What we know:
By secondary structure, the chain is of the alpha+beta class. The strands form 3 sheets. Strands 1, 2, 3, 4, 5, 6, 7, 10, 11, 13 and 16 form an 11-stranded mixed sheet that branches. Helix 3 (93-105) runs antiparallel to helix 4 and helix 3 (93-105) packs antiparallel against helix 6. Helix content is 26%, strand content 28%.
Amino acid sequence: MPESLIDILPADFREGLFAGRAESEAGPHVIAIRSGELFDITDDAATMSGAVARRAFSGGRHMGPVEEGLPEGWRLISPVDLQCIKACGVTFALSAIERVIEERARGDAAKAAEIRDLLEERVGSGIRSVVPGSDEAMALKTALIDQGMWSQYLEVAIGPDAEVFSKSPVLSTVGHGALIGVRSDSSWNNPEPEVVLVADASGTVLGATLGNDVNLRDFEGRSALLLSKAKDNTASCSIGPFIRLFDDGFTIDDVRAANVDLLIEGTDGYRLEGTNRMSEISRDPLDLVDQTLSEHHYPDGFVLFCGTLFAPTQDRDTPGGGFTHKLGDKVTIRSEKLGSLSNIVTTSRDAPPWTMGIAALMRNLAARGLIEKV
């Protein structure tokens, strides 16, 4: 997988302000891209959480133009560190329908095809035409209950409250170029290409990046109580390549209008493409942020996966079996203003172990004389 920063940054990177993290032999560094030049800002902000809180993206040690890439021996890692990793699900009509299919098929991909057309015909148009929490949505809920079509997933799709869950522990996310994991005992799973918002402790959104919220359809389909087991596994959350910070040339309106393209390339020659159009989201991204903030406190800030429109239904091998990952699949998520995030699929069992937790990071920064800069 190429490590050239030019390959993974958006075409207009010279006009934008970007922040990320890279790892050297010494440990993690916080880096920034300004006017097409790369800076190590770790001496001013030793964590991305601190940089976001203090808006500390200026200054730093000049490392050269982006074209020259990272120093020898450095590699990109996830651009977030101490922030909580939150996610919203069932934020698109299609994802709501697919979750109901999972629930009714009890996680069985073969049964799903039998249910899909019926649900789309009876539920799809209604979900697409109502505002969640509105009087019209509540009328649709009543009608679906009368038809025996109601589901817990439809509750969060059209009800007043969004689904918000904790996706991954602090510091456990992986970045561009890393292996990404699905459980070794999952037989029906897929990537979820999403926009990820980056917020400070008050819930103010400073920018956005890309993410892959790996989804185990068989686990969650068997029971919604398996959500945590389905979502939180080693290397199951990828974020990157950089956070693009809001400025005059990139705003929340660009997020609302973003297309997030997905490409899956298998070692067997398999190829699948799809697009997550943020314009079709059922709830505004800032409403999702407000619901995530709610009555919580995030002293180190949080990042929020906004959900996905994409749910692959194409058969890969067995007729009626739908799509599922194979080892070695290359997953690339790309968006015009945010760049490109690529990962290779392995199992969570075989992925490199997660070793730098909060204590290890604090010890590393203390040894480097950076603990006061967190």
